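INFO worker-7 received task bundle
INFO bundle size: 2
INFO processing item 0
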Amino acid sequence: MNSFSSLFTKENTGQLILAVLLIIYLVIGQKPPTSVAQFTNSMVGKILLFLIVIYMFIHSNPILAVLFLFVVFDLMRRSANSSNTKSSKKYIPSETKKSSQLTALNQFPYTLEQEVVKKMAPLVNNSYPVNKATYKPVVNNLYDASPIDSSN
């Protein structure tokens, strides 16, 4: 409670203004500019933000430091969402480009197997009447098994 009340003292007016600005940034949800997003996504930017957070914890009000930590995480999240659009458009192919590549890969020549299957006579022909078979099927030894059509 002491750190909260010390934030409202006259000598900490700058920290109070910074806290209000950080809260406004969190509430508005504005995407960072492209240059800021690219800097934040770089390793140097992340290290610099981490060092600033450590500095805030050492030299400022703890409430302001925790608030700044939330802002840094939110800035990293927003930067990751906004700066990937250029790289994704550059390196990830569109759906039409992927479809055309797959269509080109799926063009196969007319094979001998397809030709033979096309020339084969159909197995079932419904245009001719079905004749009775001239043979009678014979059941082999069942070895004490019951026949399939038995009701027992």
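INFO item 0 finished
INFO processing item 1
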Amino acid sequence: MDEALQLAIEMSEQNWANFRNDLKDLTADEIQWRPLPQANNINAIMKHLRVAEEWYVAGIEHGEHSPYQDVASVEQLTATIPLDFEQNLKDLEALHHRFVAAVRSTTLAALRQQTFLSQVILGQGPRPAHTLLLREMTHLATHRGQIRTIRNLYRTTRGERGLFLPDNPLFAE
């Protein structure tokens, strides 16, 4: 396996392990809690992650022949996924491992030759498939930050210490 691809896979696996660690001991209240009425909760974020991961898997496995070719197909996929945190987490994990397995079974040169439809929602055209791994990792890390923030806010609004970096000296007053 290409060293660069191996490194990227290792980074993806560490990103996944960190994400799973940040979900430890979630309560039902935390999963449903919103810092504002119009804000996403962890349940909604998990559904979004699960839908997006299916799109990533389709992109890496089928390239431009993905079943998600346009906004309507992505909306249809989204509509079929229930707002069920536990099931979506289970499905997300299976899809993530499937994505990594697909990357592991190819080469960087092959991924550079393959294309996928980038951002069908925004109407962008084909992109090289090797960029999907970065996109998948970045997407998960971005929402990991949201979940960590929601979990900290949930606790601090109840007079408790945040779980993540509660004494960060970079935020000293």
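INFO item 1 finished
INFO post-check item 1: DSSP finds seven helices and two strands in the chain.
INFO post-check item 1: The domain at 3-162 is CATH 1.20.120.450 (Four Helix Bundle (Hemerythrin (Met), subunit A)).
INFO worker-7 idle
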